[in-house]
Amino acid sequence: MSDYGLILDLINKEDEVLQSLPSREVHEKGLLHRAMHILIVNSKGQIFVRQRSLQKELYPGVWSTSVGEHVASGASYDETAERALKEFLGLECELTLLGKIRVKDEIENELMAVYLGRADDIPHISSKHMEGGEFLSEERIQALLRQGKATSHLKEAVELMKSRDS
Questions:
Q1: CATH number for the domain that contains residue 63
Q2: Fewest C-beta atoms under 10 Å: which of 38, 57, 71, 85?
Q3: Helix boundaries (H) for 58-147
Q4: In this structure, is residue 2 part of a structural domain?
């Protein structure tokens, strides 16, 4: 599935919509837009991470959050999170908003809403979104980050989750 093709809302730092543009243009120009990411944590405290599809234009084959998706123009973070959770993982569970953080790297410039969900089993893995996934300890996730094999979204989401735990 393509990372492009959506219409995204451009926002300011206060998360107010300025205008809407095609996602390809938004990324080519490095414009600030909305995204949401979900961390699914099991009863052992491990986080389900997914390896992004090799067919993706952005971060192909790289490890990331359990679920991540741009928020389409006119959609809310919450409705995007609930829909994407079911689409990516076949999962329905209570999601708690941990907060919003800015992620800016060589590819993305996003205000990212981060949600936490809890589950021990993943009913379905969407092959159009990912190559696969597994529950990993924080130590294994940190190793992926050090090796450059994980997105900045995963790094920022895990740090936000840890800051909320303390």
A1: 3.90.79.10
A2: 57
A3: 77-89, 138-146
A4: no
Q: Residues 138, 58, 113, 11: is their CA dihedral positive or negative?
A: positive
For residue 160, give its domain range.
7-165
89 assigned to some structural domain: yes
pLDDT more than 90, % of the chain: 82
Enter the pTM of the model: 0.94
In a domain, 46, yes or no: yes
State pLDDT tens for residues 27-69: 999 999 999 999 999 999 999 999 988 888 778 889 999 999 9
Residues 6+ apart with CB under 8 A from 53: 1, 60, 61, 127, 128, 129, 130, 131
Number of structural domains found in the chain: 1
Measured distance CA(108)–CA(160) in Å, rounded: 18
- Please give the Cα distance from 9 to 72 (Å, whole number): 7
Rg (CA), the chain: 15
